[in-house]
# Entry
Amino acid sequence: MKVNDLILQTVTTILSFLIITFSIYIFFAGHYTPGGGFIGGLMTSAALVLLLLAFDMKTVKTVFPINFMTVSAIGLLICVLTGVGAMFFNAPFLTHTFGYETFPILGETALATSTIFDIGVYLIVVGVAMTIIQTIGESE
Amino acid sequence: MSLIHLVILSPLILAIFVPFLHKYFRQIHTGWFVLILPILLFIYFIGFIRSSMNGETYISTMNWIPSLGINFTVYLDGLGLLFALLITGIGALVVLYSIYYLSKEKEALNTFYVYLLMFMGAMLGVVLSDNLIVLYSFWELTSFSSFLLISYWYQREKSRYGAQKSMLITVFGGLAMLAGFVLLYIMTGTFSIREIIANVDIVTADALFIPALILILLGAFTKSAQFPFHIWLPDAMEAPTPVSAYLHSATMVKAGIYLVARMSPIFAGAPEWFWLVSVFGLITLFWGSFSAVKQTDLKGILAFSTISQLGLIMSLLGIGSAAVYYDYLDDNIYTVATMAAVFHLINHATFKGSLFMVVGIVDHETGTRDIRKLGGLMNIMPISFTLALIGSFAMAGLPPFNGFLSKEMFFTGMLHATQIDAWNMDTLGILFPVFAWLASIFTFVYSMILVFKTFTGKYQPEKLDVKPHEAPIGMLISPIILVSLVVIFGFFPNLLSPSLIGPAVSSILPDYFLIEDINIYFWHGWTPELFMTIGVVAFGTFLYLTVAKWGKIYEWFPQRLALNRFYDGGIVALERGSNKFTNSYMTGFMRDYLIIIFGFMVLLLGALIVKLDVFTFNTADAADVGFYEVILAIVMVIATLTVIISKSRLTAIISLGVVGYSQALFFVLFRAPDLALTQLVVETISVALYLLVFYHLPKFKVEITRLRFRLTNFIISVAVGLIVIIIGISANSSRLFESISSYFEAVTYTEAGGKNMVNVILVDFRGFDTLFEGTVLVIAAFGIYMMIKLRLADKKGGVEGEGK
# Structure
């Protein structure tokens, strides 16, 4: 049976990139407005899942040739290292700090080390969700 | 974090890079890279000798969990320095030796050096930590890395057996020790050893004093292979010989000695401490030396010899603790015992390290360690023979080697023990020197067996697998250095006494000893000690020559009652019992698991609610119920009912989705955008996941029609629902505390610089939770991956054996 999914595929290609862009925005917005690493990561995975549904496993793998297990491992490593990093400044494990810097275009911007930690969370969520979905999807 | 923290952690950091060094520099033996580190560390620690001679100590703190009083405080005094030098010095020699011992073609060098470095770092952490919890963490890391090293040749069943045995026994002791540490914390309110020592009056007066003492000694005794926990050490000899030389003679097993020495300022002076440490030490000393004589494996002899020598040091520490009881004596004679303990500790590391290396050479060059096959190697391996001869003579306590001096001091200490006029020592005390003397005779006998059965006698090449020849020079360097130290320390003991022994003893007995007091003489006249040594040599030679005749007495010892039997039986019983217990509830049916989990939850929470009488229903705080909320609630109820009664799976999945999305809408209504967002995406992804697996699911049908089972299901589901509702209502109705949200509202911006409270809580205030949740997620993902991939591989008939 030939499946007619032209509309779904066309819409998905555009939509998934919109979702990913939005998820990145949501991720960075996290410290001040709704969002953050967890939800950003979930949203990115949702975009990838959408691609998986519209296309097949193989196509997505060629577009994103990423081993998602590694992604989650790297995420966890980032989380731990951010925690350890505090110890170099003689602060307890996982102490965060923040400051304000002025940049040419952005103006005064808040910079927080917790963002690095949040990147770790983001990667963990994307990695874990995609690992689970890919392995289950592949098991035929 | 200061330099010394980095120094302690540096072996662990290097361990991360070892696999890469191994991978990218294959033509170079990985050991050469590793060798650099212990040499540098050894030089670094030598720099502290001068200040430690002046009685100065070095302290540096790094905060870890300050709110619980757990900080990585490095405390470097004479005792810690002595051990640090042993760990890095012997460590460097062992790494050098291992480069020639382990071939880079055949062995998995990357894992070997990772484990070895892990061990080195852990050991440095143990001896330099001031905080008991940090000490404990490093202590268990030594057990763990030793487990990995013993099972290095994990294809062999004996290696696995030995590794498991050492792990079970030492970790059991470690846990007991942790309990002892906690008791010390309860008594003093601090984990810092220095502060506990400063508050020693509180500790001795407390009722928990004796339990803490016993628990901590359990840790020390299991680690240092004291009777009856010594049974793990002979089996640990399955590890590669460099490991045996390093862990099981020079360093790790001495962690127990270290602990007793470190805890002496707290516990010494108590009769229980004196009796337990000295008596267990003496029993171990005697039993180890007695058992060593019957061994036929060279490493077996050395293993029991190590056990007995550790007992010797332990018993000396026990007698030395009597010094605290006699604090009024001007010239406190009991400090000699502690001095002897420290001196013998150094000597033992040198001669036992070299003997292990020589035995490794013999094993390497002849293919066997069985003394019944060996013999007459003197002419073929002259250098090894010389090394073994000196090492064994030092071990037997013969002049002019360092073992002689510490053995004389050991006899002095034992003779002093008879003069203690308390604790029934006037009658029982005489047993101390008698046991010590008997044990020394057996020590003499096995030392002679070790060297002369191997290197003299009849050469039997037909019993050897390979043609023996002298070891390569690289393998001989390390034992030559150690044996030179044996000779140097023998002739010039006062090189050590002010620099290492004195400061270490003054850490063990801080108030009773001055560094200037110490002087070790080679010749001190025709003393009783000297006559005891002459007796040892005379009787020992006689026993050695007639060992064939009297050796039969070893057959009297019934194998059935041996401690090993007891251990093995215990393991089998434990395995059977836990298997039976596990099988009783792990039925393999999901419904059974759910019944157990939910039933337990209902019973526990229900009983608690009734017992504590916490059910309250209070609507004072409740807000008005709006129009949308009512609609949503009705939708949710309908959707839930649809899930239950639906006849097709697709309907069930979609209805479940409806429940989830309605929940998200509730969050929107209650103005929790973060939660709503998360709920929406989670719901979407889980529905997608359902759709993915949908195709593979079995046909949807109502499988169980038995009324009894359906009734159980019904009761449990209703009960779970009820309990959850009751808890929800009670939690909402009773506000025992002020809500914590106002605190977060106040500090979110000032403390963390963020405005989104949920996010700030997740990454800043409760970052630890998030970190571990992430870990759980990753583990779960890996678990799913492994399960599905392995099942696929199995179906294809692919991966066999290894994966299962």
Observations:
- The longest helix of chain B spans residues 157-188.
- The CA atoms of residues 237 and 299 of chain B lie 7 Å apart.
